[in-house]
Amino acid sequence: VGLAVQNYLVAFNVLPPGGITEGPCCSTRSGTSWAISILPYVEQQALYDLYDMEAYNEDPVNQPVREAALKVYVCPTDLGTDELEVPGSGPATGAKIKYRRGSYRANTGRSTDNSWWGAQSSGETFDNFPLPGNWRGPMYTLGALNYTFVRPGDIRDGMSNTLLVGEMASSTTPNRRTYWAYSYAAYNKSYVTTQARTLLADYERCLAIGGPGGASPCKGGWGSFHPGGLQFVMCDGSVHFLPDTIDMILFADLGTIAGGEVVTLP
């Protein structure tokens, strides 16, 4: 995945979009996403060609892509990734549209728990968004396509010091897990906070612990079934195993593209 994003970057000089939903929460249909955009670079050109960019992500024409099982988007330690499922929210829920599970989510940036760089509100623009602009992640989304693309020069904290894609798995609440092709909200992208509960591979436990933002940080959290931590690929393509005991201020610092923090990976 890291190499695929690097090749996409060489081809277009921008990182792929986190996921496009051009309208307000929670029924607006979506477009493409980072995981769909890099399909040609993970040897899936034929599947990419099946995706109709002029249609919505949830439209019947894109069903073959939504239901495709791709090993490259699955961690071997993850559970039940071969299953199709209706996600727990968004336009796919009411229409009972099924998606294939995955294990990896893009990093949209740092959050204050209630607002995050994956918002789909019709009135939000980069200029009036309630989070600092330097808290953006490398594949953030802000409602409209022209607020999405990040160029290498924008990542002023350093490509090797910025989280790109990480694991998100859960042993509970299956319909809040990762769906690699679902562009809507936090199903194939997450965000970083200073709350340790967001690194648990257990959605219900995250809810039970509680904290600022209620359920939202759990929906946009991370987690894996590796003992002791989880894998992240950085913006330079390198992969690091981060312990689940990581200092959460450091974790939040790693999530920004231009926060100005001085960080050292654990």
Question: Can you walk me through this structure?
Answer:
With 266 residues, the protein is an alpha/beta fold. Helix content is 18%, strand content 13%. The protein has helices at 2-12, 34-37, 45-50, 63-66, 91-95, 203-209, 216-219, 248-254, and strands at residues 84-85, 99-100, 104-110, 118-119, 141-142, 163-167, 189-192, 229-234, 239-243. A five-stranded mixed sheet has the order 7-3-6-8-9. The protein has a two-stranded antiparallel ribbon with strand order 1-2. The chain is globular and about 45 Å long. The mean pLDDT is 91.
Describe how the helices and strands are arranged.
Elements: H1 2-12, H2 34-37, H3 45-50, H4 63-66, E1 84-85, H5 91-95, E2 99-100, E3 104-110, E4 118-119, E5 141-142, E6 163-167, E7 189-192, H6 203-209, H7 216-219, E8 229-234, E9 239-243, H8 248-254
Largest sheet: 5 strands, mixed
- Tell me the β content: 5-15%
**Which value, in Å, is the CA radius of gyration?**
17 Å
**H/E series, N to C?**
HHHHEHEEEEEEHHEEH
SS class: alpha/beta
Give the mean pLDDT: 91
Globular, elongated, flat, extended or rod-shaped: what is the shape? globular
The helix content, as a percent range, equals 10-25%
The side-by-side strand order for the widest beta sheet comes to 7-3-6-8-9
Question: How many strands?
Answer: 9
End-to-end C-alpha gap: 22 Å
User: How many helical stretches?
Assistant: 8
Low-confidence stretches: none
